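Tutorial, part two.
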Amino acid sequence: MVNAVTVKGLAARLDKAEQLVAEGAVYPVAGCDGYAVVRNGDGTQMYLVRFAAGHENCTCPDFKNRQGTAGLPCKHILAAELALGDRPQPPAPAAMTVDPIAIETARKLGIIAPAKVAA
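Running the prediction step on this input gives:
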């Protein structure tokens, strides 16, 4: 059973999470749905957060020392859920492809240096 002390602590944690979101302290990790980097309240640390349902985790001391074992979210997990939980994560950057004809044309025009031939 959840008691009043636990609820009060969660309410305070939620207030802090909302403040982090308002300050723009939550950054999605491109190409990794359910992951974010969240800055702490005073801006001195960044924490990696996994906020995917059922797999929540944070690298902050609060989660490691207290919340992880109790099964309760830290303010960073809550902030990531509030800021990014309902929107899809941006896709990972596409792999860069090399067009050999464009490279050769750029070499001929002097835009890039000629290829070095190994001796």
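The chain has a mean pLDDT of 81. In part three we will examine how such features are distributed along the chain.
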